[in-house]
Amino acid sequence: MQALANKRIILGLTGGIACYKSAEFLRRAQDQGATFDVVMTAGAQQFITPMTFQALSGRPVHTDLWDNRSADNMAHIHLSRDADAILIAPASTNFIARLAQGLADDLLSTLCVARGDCPLIIAPAMNKEMWAHPATQRNIAQLKADGVHVIGPGSGDQACGEIGDGRMLEPMQILAELIAFFQPKSLAGKRVLITAGPTAEPIDPIRTITNRSSGKMGYAIAEAAYQAGAEVHLVSGPVRLEAPYGTKRQWVQSAREMHATVMNLAPNMDVFISVAAVADWYVTNASQHKIKKNAEQNAPMLEFAPNPDILADVAALPQAQRPFCVGFAAETEKLIEHAQAKRLRKGVPLLVGNLAQQAMDADDTQLMIFDESGHQQWPAQSKQKAAQQLVQHIARYL
Ligand code: C5P
Description:
This protein has 398 residues and is of the alpha/beta class. It contains 14 helices and 19 strands. The chain has helices at 19-31, 50-57, 75-78, 93-101, 107-113, 128-132, 134-145, 171-181, 216-227, 255-265, 310-315, 335-346, 356-359, 383-397, and strands at 8-13, 35-40, 85-91, 120-124, 149-150, 154-157, 163-167, 191-196, 201-202, 208-209, 231-236, 248-251, 271-274, 281-283, 304-306, 324-331, 350-355, 364-371, 374-382.
C-alpha cells in the first residue's frame, strides 16, 4: 500500500545542515506514492545543490521568484494551487521568523503567503539555543495560532557538537508525520492501549515457550491509531520491530508480566485492543538455572498452569474503568463459529477474526469483524491498510 498515493507535495528547503536528511526523506516519501515540487531558498543552496533534488524528484527545482520559465512569471501563485501540502524541512530560525511576520521576499516565503488554504507543515531545525530563544518560541506560537502544523523538533546530538532540542526529525519520522497529517483524526484525544507480539514463558533463564506471532498486526494498529490522533500505549512481547513513531512502547516477556502491565494501564484508557498472541500456559516449575542434560538424556518434566486471560480481565473491569475492548481471534478452522463464541466468552463488544495460517508473520491479512449485530468480511489487504480500516471502524463505536 502506498500511504501517500496521488499526493502532490511542495517540499521547501531553507538554510541548514539538515538539508541532507531531506534528500533521504524525499526518496522514502516517493516510495509511498507522493510527487514533489522542490523549492529551495538561497540559504538551502549553500548546503545542498538544486541538482540533487532535481535528480531525485525528476522535476525542475524552483529557486527564484523571478524565474521566467513560468509563462506568466507567477510560480509563487501556481505552485501551491493544486498541492496537497507545503512541507518546509528544514525550517530555519530565520525562515520561521519571516513566516511569522508574513514576509514575502523570496520564492518560498512568497509561496507560503500566497498559499490560500493549502496546508503548511514545518519541520524546524536549528541549534538548541536558537530554538530556545524567546523570539523563536514566540514565532512558533504565532505560526501555530495561524494554523501552521509544526512537527518536531527532536532532541539529541547537534551538528554543532551541542546536545539538546532543535534537531530536525529523522527522515522516517517526517514521513510518519506527513502520512499522519492526511489521516482522519477519528481518535483525537483518545487513549489507546494495544498488546502485540507473542509472549515468552520461561523454562529456565535461557529457554522459553513462545509462538510464531511477528507483532506486525498489533504494531500496524498502533501506528494507525497514532495517525488517527490517539495517544498510543503499546505493550509488546519480544519482536524484531521498531516502535511505530509517536507511540509509547513497554516491553514484556511473559503473559503474567503482560497482564500486570495492562491491568495497571487499562483503567486510564479509552480503548483496549488485545492483539497479542498470549501463551495459554506457563511453566510452574521453571528453573532458576540452566537445565543441564543428564547422563540418561531424560527430558525435563515441565509442569504447566493456565495464564490469566488479559482481555477477559480488562473486559470485566467495572464500567467506569473499562475501556472499549477489542479482541482478536486467530483460528485455523471454523473461523466464524469460534470467533462468535470467543466474543461472547471474553465479554467484548468487538472481535476481529483471521485465519492463523494466512495471517501469521504475513504482510497481508483478511479480517472478519464480529459484533452484536453479526459479522462482516473485509478484503485481503496489507496489515497497514487493514489497521487503518479497523481504527476508523472502532472510532464509530466510541
Ligand atoms: O483465548 P484466545 O487466545 O483464543 O483469545 C484471543 C484473544 O484473547 C486475543 O485478543 C488475545 O490477545 C486475548 N488473550 C489474552 N490473554 C490470554 C489469552 C488471549 O488477552 N491469556
